[in-house]
Structure formats: C-alpha cells, structure tokens
Design goal:
about 375 residues; alpha/beta; five-stranded parallel β-sheet; 16 helices; 12 strands; about 15% strand; globular; binds 5-amino-5-deoxy-1-O-phosphono-D-mannitol; EC 2.6.1.16; cytoplasm; glutamine amidotransferase
C-alpha cells in the first residue's frame, strides 16, 4: 500500500507530479487559454465584485492561504486577509454581506475551520471551499468550491495536499483576474503555461533527492533551525519550519527574512542552520542581503535557489537547486525540498515520520 516506499509521507511527496497534474486536469487548458472551474462560474459576479476575501484555515492549509493572499492581491487587486480558523471563530470578526470566505482544508473536517465558516455564512458571507476529501463537512457547508483531487493523504504531515491547494488557488486567482481585467493577456497566458509545466518540473526536482538526504545526515543533530523567505516564498519558510517540527521534533521557526533583524537574529551563531528560500524573484536581491547578515554572524546557510545563482552559492554552506519558475508559481516547487529535508531528518533521527507523537491527521475537536 506504500507502493514500494518506506513511508506514506515519502510516497505522497513523490506523488506530487501526478497529483498536481490531476488537480489541473480538465480545468486548465493553456493552449486554449482557459480555466474552467464550475464553482467560480457559479459565483463569478460575487468574486469579481467582492471588496474582501478572507482565507480561513489551520496549519499547512493556513500556509497555502498565505501564499494565496500574495497571489490574489497581485493578480486580482482584491484585499485579502488570512485567518487562523480558531481565532476567527471566537473573536466576533467583522463580516460584511458579499465578503468571500475561502476555507482551505485537506480533510474537510477540521472543527475550527468548519465552525468558522458556519458562523460567517450566517452573517451573509459567501463560502468557497478548497477541500481535498470529497463530501466532507467543510465541502458540504460551502456554497461552492473546488476539490484539490490530491487523493487520500495518509501521512500526518501534509505534503501533496498543500501543492494541490496552491494549484487550485492559483487557478482561481487567474480565473478571477481574467474576469476582472486586472491581468494583462500576456501575463495570463504566461502563467497558464507556467502552471501547466509544474508537474514536469516537480518530477525533475524529485530526481535530485540524494543531495537532500546527505544534507539531512549533516544537519540531523541541530537543536534549532531558522527558515527565512520573502514575498511568495515567505509562507514556504513557515511551512518548512512546521514540517521539520512535526517530523523531526527539532525546534524550528519560520520568519519573513527581513523580520529576522527584529529579534531572531540574536539566535544566530555557528551552530544554527538557516534555510533560505531564495529562488530568483522580485525580492531576490533583498534576500541576498539577508543571507549576508546571517553569514556575517557565522550561521550555517542552506539555500534553496535556482541554477547559476552564484551570489547565493558563495554565501551558502549548502545549496538545493530547484527549477526556475515565475514567482507566483515558485512556492509549488520550493516547498518540495522543505518536505524532503524534514522527511530525511526525521528518518535519520529514527522517528516514526508517518505518525509523529501527539499529532492526529485531522483535528476534529477544538
Ligand atoms: O485537514 P486540514 O487541512 O484542515 O488540517 C489543517 C491542519 O491540521 C494540518 O495542515 C496540520 O497542520 C498538518 N499536520 C500539517 O502537516
């Protein structure tokens, strides 16, 4: 049932070329220049005219919401907020008629997310579910939605569900941007083609796992890790830290790379591995200067970069190369080394990566 892999987590990481493909299939047609999503069609006017989108989720799904915030704001020029479901549900949030809530959940059963959308629905919001499990409570409580089609995810750490969430949310943003006229035809066509190319790029990336395995051996005894990124890759830093905590029990924190100067930099010494998600994008130069700051304090820099990035290479102790992609698409690729690094460190520490202590696959109690 693990299809020849040692763990479900590894199997699910390796399934991503297929699951992302399945998620795009029948929706994205880059040649025709179309995105077909029935949920979006049904609420097209509401999505185009809304003043606000609120992403509501927990854990890894919340990280997908954060990436989507950057994407929707960039492409659709809609104000987006990203909320932890547990906070949103208890704090009497301001909800106006016409607000769109996007609930993101792999299981579709997370109690806080479910109650949060039920409350918002009662106050006149339109609820859109981005859910993996078909027929689950959150999918049923939503007005419309789009399934992620990632197939059953058994490993407690969410992997393939996350990249499928990103694929769905990116398609949604592109469809809305097209209808709203907030994207140029050229950028729209480029991003459609970029999205279509993701499964193949993920396959390519998954062929270079040996390097990551070696890194895991090298860093498995670290006591803390810092993960840094900016822009579209900032949530990937958070996700990298969460994966490592869950699977290896190593303390890790994710931060926006510039925010590090406001406190966490005090932690940096020659024993601290700092993972930079530093693929080439509009933030790249800024990330490089953050890398210099870590280097100057003797931190061990591990950077996730694109080929030929000599500047990053010269500042890094170790590098992981990922295929180049538009910055909107990049998180779907840059997160994969984060998943693998956590996995191999967990295995190297002899831990039960599929069932980490204290965790349940879905949190159906608050
Ligand atoms: O099923 P959901 O997506 O609603 O679950 C949300 C979180 O509980 C989940 O992402 C959790 O953080 C995972 N263990 C992360 O790997």
């Amino acid at each position: 049932e693990k299809g020849g892999y040692d763990h479900f987590m590894l199997k699910e990481i390796f399934e991503q070329p297929q699951t992302i493909f399945d998620c795009l299939r029948g929706r994205l047609d880059a040649t025709a220049g179309t995105i077909t999503m029935s949920g979006i069609e049904k609420y097209a006017d509401e999505l185009v005219n809304t003043n606000r989108i609120v992403m509501v989720a927990c854990g890894t799904s919340w990280h997908a919401g954060l990436v989507a915030e950057y994407i929707f704001e960039e492409l659709c020029r809609i104000n987006v907020e990203v909320e932890y479901a547990s906070e949103f549900r208890y704090r009497n949030p301001v909800i106006n008629k016409g607000d769109v809530i996007i609930a993101i959940s792999q299981s579709g059963e997370t109690a806080d997310t479910l109650v949060a959308i039920e409350n918002a629905k009662n106050q006149g919001a339109i609820i859109f579910g981005v859910v993996n499990v078909v027929g689950s409570s959150i999918s049923r409580a939503s007005h419309a939605g789009a399934y992620t089609h990632a197939g059953p995810e058994i490993g407690v750490a969410s992997t393939k569900a996350f990249t499928a969430q990103l694929a769905v949310l990116t398609m949604m943003a592109l469809a809305v941007a097209k209808k709203k006229g907030t994207i140029t035809e050229q950028r729209y066509q480029t991003l459609l083609k970029e999205l279509e190319a993701v499964p193949e790029k993920v396959s390519k990336l998954l062929k270079s796992v040996d390097g990551i395995k070696a890194l895991a051996e090298k860093y498995k005894d670290a006591e803390d890790f810092l993960y840094l990124g900016r822009g579209f890759n900032f949530p990937v830093a958070l996700e990298g830290a969460l994966k490592l905590k869950e699977i290896s029990y190593i303390h890790a924190e994710g931060y926006p790379a510039a925010e590090m100067k406001h406190g966490p930099i005090a932690l940096v010494d020659e024993t601290l591995p700092v993972v930079f998600i530093a693929t080439r994008d509009s933030y790249h130069e800024k990330v490089i200067s953050n890398m210099q700051e870590i280097k100057a304090r003797k931190g061990m820099v591990i950077s996730v970069i694109n080929e030929g990035d000599e500047q990053s290479i010269s500042l890094s102790n170790d590098v992981i190369i990922v295929p180049e992609a538009d910055e909107v698409i990049a998180p779907m690729l840059s997160v994969i080394p984060m998943q693998l690094l956590a996995y191999y460190i967990g295995v190297a520490r002899g831990l039960d990566v599929d069932k980490p202590r204290n965790l349940a696959k879905s949190v159906t109690v608050e």
